[in-house]
């Protein structure tokens, strides 16, 4: 893939966030990696979506050096590149401050699996990375945010929950490419909204029984999946 093609895909993924009402002003960024070239295309820092162009997209290497572009890359770039370095199977990362997912993050509560809608896409709860320690805040903050996320998946595959919320901060999602990571961001916001409303109506409701979680997740993602067109 050429630099221009990569930048265009990342531009279109970023604009999809605005189309889906998941960003306000500059509250978000999407990236995509070209693993053969070892480069990442990402939204520039602080550029409003209505002003964003394909040419504005910045290309960096996995050590966060600018390879192509006149603008500064997103301030969250080190989080994105950390995830790419740690998880070789992902190809795109999205970060938003969408309302409901961010509310759960600010409440510092993992999103429990309360229904089959969530179980269709996430195998169980959506984890919440803990509030960052003072030592990590004083360190390389954006890099440490990536480490906080990866720590949540020490005993779980990131493919089982292609989304996470970071306590006191906001959500991150990922996928095979930029477009898929945005798709998961859209799903996360809707799931977070449903979970909030469910907990409002029934605060003591328990998580969905494991048998239903297994059935709905595995029929889409399991070895013998049969959902959709094969």
Describe this protein with a few key phrases.
alpha+beta, 8 helices, L-fuculose-1-phosphate Aldolase, 230 residues, eight-stranded mixed sheet, 40% helix
Could you walk me through the main structural features you see in this protein, from its secondary elements to its overall organization?
With 230 residues, the chain is α+β, with helices and mostly antiparallel strands. It has a single domain, classed as Class II aldolase/adducin N-terminal domain (L-fuculose-1-phosphate Aldolase, 3-Layer(aba) Sandwich), CATH 3.40.225. The chain is 40% helix and 15% strand. It has helices at residues 3-19, 77-86, 99-107, 116-119, 134-138, 141-151, 178-201, 210-221; strands at 28-34, 39-42, 58-61, 66-68, 92-96, 128-129, 163-166, 171-175. An eight-stranded mixed beta sheet has the order 4-3-2-1-5-8-7-6, with helices on both faces.
Layout of strands and helices, then pairs:
Elements: H1 3-19, E1 28-34, E2 39-42, E3 58-61, E4 66-68, H2 77-86, E5 92-96, H3 99-107, H4 116-119, E6 128-129, H5 134-138, H6 141-151, E7 163-166, E8 171-175, H7 178-201, H8 210-221
Parallel strand pairs: 6-7
Antiparallel strand pairs: 1-2, 1-5, 2-3, 3-4, 5-8, 7-8
Helix pairs in contact: 1-7, 2-6, 3-7
């Amino acid at each position: 893939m050429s630099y221009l093609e990569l930048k265009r895909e990342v531009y279109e993924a970023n604009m999809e966030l605005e189309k889906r009402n998941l960003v306000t002003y500059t509250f978000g960024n999407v990236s995509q990696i070209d693993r053969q070239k070892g480069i990442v295309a990402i939204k520039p820092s602080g550029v409003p979506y209505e002003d964003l162009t394909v040419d504005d997209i910045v290309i960096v290497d996995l050590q966060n050096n600018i390879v192509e572009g006149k603008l500064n890359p997103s301030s969250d770039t080190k989080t994105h590149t950390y995830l790419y370095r740690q998880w070789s199977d992902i190809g795109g990362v999205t970060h938003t401050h969408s309302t409901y997912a961010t509310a759960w993050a600010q409440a510092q509560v993992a999103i429990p699996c309360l229904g089959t809608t969530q179980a269709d896409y996430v195998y169980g709860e959506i984890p919440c990375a803990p509030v960052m320690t003072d030592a990590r805040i004083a360190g390389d903050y954006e890099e440490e945010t990536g480490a906080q996320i990866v720590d949540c998946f020490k005993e779980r595959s990131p493919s089982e929950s292609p989304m996470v919320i970071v306590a006191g901060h906001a959500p991150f999602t990922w996928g095979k490419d930029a477009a898929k990571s945005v798709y998961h961001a859209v799903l996360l916001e809707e799931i977070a909204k449903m979970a909030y409303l469910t907990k409002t109506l029934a605060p003591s409701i328990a998580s969905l029984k494991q048998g239903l979680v297994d059935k709905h997740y595995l029929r889409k993602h399991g070895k013998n999946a049969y959902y959709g067109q094969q």
